[in-house]
Amino acid sequence: MTTATQTNADLFARAQAAIPGGVNSPVRAFRSVGGTPRFLVSARGPYVTDAEGREYVDLVAGWGPAILGHAHPEVIAAVQEAAARGLSFGASTPVETELAELIEQRVAPIEKLRLVSTGTEATMSAIRLARGFTGRDLLVKFSGHYHGHSDGLLAEAGSGLATFALPGSAGVPAEVAALTLVVPYNDLDALRAVFAEHGDRIAAVITEAAAANMGVVPPLPGFNRALVELAHAHGALVISDEVLTGFRVSKAGWWGLEAETDAAYTPDLVTFGKVVGGGMPVAALGGRAEIMERLAPLGPVYQAGTLSGNPVAVTAGVTTLRLADDAVYARLDEVAALLQREVSAALAAEGVAHVVQTAGNLFSFLFGDAVAGGARDYAGVLAQESWRYPPFFHAMLEAGVSLPPSVFEAWFVTVAHDDAAVSRILDALPAAARAAAS
Ligand code: PLP
């Protein structure tokens, strides 16, 4: 049991003795910003509270899921009711179909959907399915894109691997890594070259629908569409990874933002996580029925999970998606735009060269003159003065604002960021911008 008298430092020391690096997911360790991670004990609306009783305005939002803010009363009530009926049945439940139907209604390319527990499982299963469907082995991914931590997906990945400057992971057999071809993002010529050389062996291209694990790097207009056309011309599938963007940037994810434009595209498979679980472990893969029906028990591609479609977790997801109406997305956009503007003004006032990169309501900042034109790929992102972020981060934390502890992560707003929470962020900005300037 934790008590309010324990300090973050004490808790971290104890955690480090029991858990590798003191954390259960690497970026939480504050390695790239330094200092002691905050051990959180509760969260409500736009705020999180640490073990020392300090409250922070939260711009991490559980790394994305909490679009409604933390502990939304209707979500909590639904989860409590579901929990009281039983935690896990290992059998089908009505609420799983409800979640699948909700997603299928919103994202047209999805005709069938399977629930899993994490984004990693969703992308891993989507790749196996693409290989099973095409009878091919090679996978193409983009450098700086993160799709979870399965073996074939860690090559030049973003998120924690970008934070720690790791090219990949030990423990991945060379034979497995060799099946993944890595291409610079937003570079159709490079993609064409890879297809020209290996086209008949490529099962799928996996792409973040809009990249947000190397900081935010949106696809160039028409990139997703051209990518689908190119892949299809070679008999390959496209897996659009919306684990992070899905139901966060719009009611129909990134796909929804482009669906009504000239850039409209139809991926073969789409992966979801984060918001679809409303803060509980739910993720999904979906797509064309013809492909999805290759999954067991209908087809030969095996995929399973004791906790898949867990009734308590799925209830959190369904309730969250039902509450996420147009007004919610309008408010997320409004808060995101306001913060972009105000952070930018504060940095400019201190003479800190920077660029705001956005993808819907997701955003992050690149620091330094070298990136004045913005970044369209991982090499562009790495050219920034990333050392300006840790002092900025710590000045914000000191003032009671919790930002992602890495310059290579997006900032996440919630609909619970009301005027009071936003003013606390704005009040913290001048000192943080000064820290970034020095
Ligand atoms: N895909 C994307 C785009 C992600 O952002 C993430 C996690 O951040 C994943 C996949 C992996 O999801 P999980 O951490 O739930 O395994």
From TrEMBL:
Domain of life according to the entry: Bacteria
One Pfam family it belongs to: Aminotran_3
UniProt keyword annotations, A-Z: Cytoplasm, Isomerase, Porphyrin biosynthesis, Pyridoxal phosphate
One Gene Ontology term of the molecular function aspect: glutamate-1-semialdehyde 2,1-aminomutase activity
UniProt subcellular location: Cytoplasm
Tagged with keyword Cytoplasm: yes
Pathway annotation: Porphyrin-containing compound metabolism; protoporphyrin-IX biosynthesis; 5-aminolevulinate from L-glutamyl-tRNA(Glu): step 2/2
Co-factor(s): pyridoxal 5'-phosphate
Known catalytic reactions: (S)-4-amino-5-oxopentanoate = 5-aminolevulinate
Gene3D superfamilies: Aspartate Aminotransferase, domain 1 (3.90.1150.10), Type I PLP-dependent aspartate aminotransferase-like (Major domain) (3.40.640.10)
Enzyme Commission number(s) from the entry: 5.4.3.8
Subunit description: Homodimer.
PANTHER family per record: GLUTAMATE-1-SEMIALDEHYDE 2,1-AMINOMUTASE, GLUTAMATE-1-SEMIALDEHYDE 2,1-AMINOMUTASE 1, CHLOROPLASTIC-RELATED
Name of the featured protein: Glutamate-1-semialdehyde 2,1-aminomutase
Source organism: Agromyces indicus
